[in-house]
Amino acid sequence: MQLYRAHVLVCAGTGCTSSNSLKIMEEMETLLKDNSLESEIKIVKTGCFGLCAEGPIVVVYPEGAMYTRVGVADVKDIVEEHLLKGRIVKRLLAGEKEAEDISKALESVDFFKRQHRIALRNCGRINPENIDEYIAFDGYRALEKVLTGMTPKAVIDTIKRSGLRGRGGGGFPTGIKWEFAAKQVSDQKYVCCNADEGDPGAFMDRSVLEGDPHSLIEAMSIAGYAIGATEGFIYVRAEYPIAVKRLQIAIGQAKEYGILGDNVLGTGHKFDLEIRLGAGAFVCGEETALMTSIEGHRGEPRPRPPFPAVKGLWQKPTILNNVETYANIPVIILEGAEWFASIGTEKSKGTKVFALGGKINNTGLVEVPMGTTLREVVYDIGGGIPKGKKFKAAQTGGPSGGCIPVSHLDTPIDYDSLIALGSMMGSGGLIVMDEDNCMVDIAKFFLEFTVDESCGKCPPCRIGTKRMHEILERITEGKGEDGDIEKLELLAKNIKASALCGLGQTAPNPILSTLKYFRDEYEAHVYQKKCPSGVCKSMLQYTIDAARCKSCGLCTKVCPMNCISGEKKVPYVIDQSKCAKCGACMEKCPFKAIAKI
User: Which parts of the sequence belong to the 4Fe-4S ferredoxin-type domain (predicted)?
Assistant: First the structure.
């Protein structure tokens, strides 16, 4: 076995790949050869580290030095200074660039030291395209333990005692779902994985698939043994080409090693996996719509009951969990139910992965124990709001969730707390908004998404969401009427109560939560024809302060509509009938003579 004195881990997730991380690897390979270091230094292509705002990321072990925003030109310094001479390149370090103690640079970064990684345990640590590296980190030990020393009932009991709940939506207890399917008598059962991940801004499942695909294969095989299924399907977005490629490689390797097939690990257990590509329909995140799509039909939800555990894929008993849920299974089997249950809160066990986005300094993936407060995630891990702006709200659960205001910033993040606030956990998208965001516009944005993604099968969702969107459009265009807010609220409650599936039932959440916490903004739009945040363009005006205007003409040069006119020594004016309200003039004016009203 080849031994190396140092390992260089380079992120090859989607984000860093799009920022030339593969070219960074190529340049490093070239320079290592030029310096005769190729037999001493190993380059490892990994999945996402999580700190996406600072990519591309390169980590050098054994020091654990984490280099951020690395460019191809920076590789020379890393090779010649760090790898050849043993000098840390401080200008590229994450966190405190000037810190003297850099012996554990990675662990000292605030973004990482406050996390507890279970689902993301191998992301950024191993080469996802090498099964041997997964095995070296206890990979497939849980499957071996299950097949050689546990009954299917013991496996299900372990998952039930752990308190693991589904990480993809409503948070249904995973062990109970498996138990329902296990009790069914059938000649065929199926295990399915939802890797469709349609929420805007969510990329938790994608990162696990790209960084640790074997953990999903191991977990689904364990699930198959537990319920008596011999076949599984991974339903993954076609828009995830890196994830699909690495899944295909991992499945091929697992078959080669006897981990998938007719005689898994020589125990007689039979289990195999297939990948099904989704076309990007948000409604296929709903379990029955996903199964309908796997069967080759248009992805539309079915009435429940019967539930999939009784009649699912091809009318056979089926369980469906998302990627993050499965990623917890091998660790629970190895560490024990009590260990997992000791993390989190009484009713929300374990950790949760969030995709931090929006108005936040450290965008990326974080995994924290259930019960961690929103303030800790936003400020201690996320690094706070850019440019010193004030926190206004956080949207959890994507289009299906709601907005949490600053008054609830210290709320512990768990299933029940979020539901009590009018939001939900969902798959884990967490979008942060600051004082410049208009909450009416935010509600309209998310509703526009659900209107487009509705499958159209049931009238409450097909027609009701469209009517709500029309009302919101009127309100944001300054055409709101007395009674519109009440109509919006009534429609939202009726749709929530009558829609066929989870998409329609949760579509009103952004509206109901913003009405609950930001009703004054709706009233300002309707009755004062004013957008307090200055976002809704129909209500804006850009005006020139005659006392400050120096008649320099810079504003006229950037105006795309040619609606600003004036003469030397005479203050310029804006023709409001032509103004596109783009704000280019205000940004260009060096004398701050132009204001947005």
Answer: 540-569, 570-597
Which residues does 367 contact at the CB level (< 8 Å), separation at least 6?
50, 115, 116, 117, 118, 119, 120, 351, 352, 353, 354
Q: Looking at domain 540-596, which of 3.30.70.20, 2.60.40.10, 3.40.50.140, 3.40.190.10 is its CATH number?
A: 3.30.70.20
Please state which of the ranges 100-114, 315-329, 396-410, 567-581 shows the lowest mean pLDDT.
Answer: 100-114
> How far is 177 from 307, CA to CA, in rounded Å?
10
Contacts of 511 (CB under 8 A, 6+ apart): 443, 447, 468, 472, 488, 489, 492
Domain boundaries, the chain: 6-108, 131-342, 351-434, 439-528, 540-596
> What is the DSSP code string of 110-176?
HHHHT---STTTTTTTS-TT-HHHHHHTTTTHHHHHHHHH--HHHHHHHHHHHT-B-SSSS--BHHH
Least confident of 271-275, 377-381, 421-425: 421-425
- Whole-model pTM? 0.90
Task: Tell me the CA distances in angstroms from 181 to 273, 316, 326, one per residue in order.
Answer: 18, 10, 16
What distance in Å separates the CA atoms of residue 483 and residue 24, rounded to the nearest whole number?
59
Return the CATH fold of 351-434. Ubiquitin-like (UB roll) (3.10.20)
Q: Is the pLDDT of residue 370 over 90?
A: yes
pLDDT, tens digit, 9 for 90 and up, residues 36-45:
999 999 999 9
Instruction: Name the pLDDT band for 151 (thresholds 50, 70, 90).
Output: very high
Which phi and psi (to 5°) does residue 33 adopt?
-65, -45
Task: Give the class (CATH, top level) of 6-108.
Answer: alpha beta
Measured CA to CA, the distance from residue 89 to residue 78 in angstroms comes to: 7
Is the model's pLDDT at 349 over the cut of 90?
Answer: yes
Averaged pLDDT of the chain: 91
How many other CB atoms are found less than 10 A from the CB of residue 541? 11
CA 440 to CA 156: how far, in whole Å? 45
Query: Which residue, 40, 259, 294, 29, is CA-closest to 147?
Result: 259
Q: How far apart are the first and last CA of the chain?
A: 69
Torsion of CA 260, 265, 266, 272, to 10 degrees: -10
More confident residue, 591 or 246: 246
Q: What are phi and psi of 77, to 5 degrees?
A: -65, -40
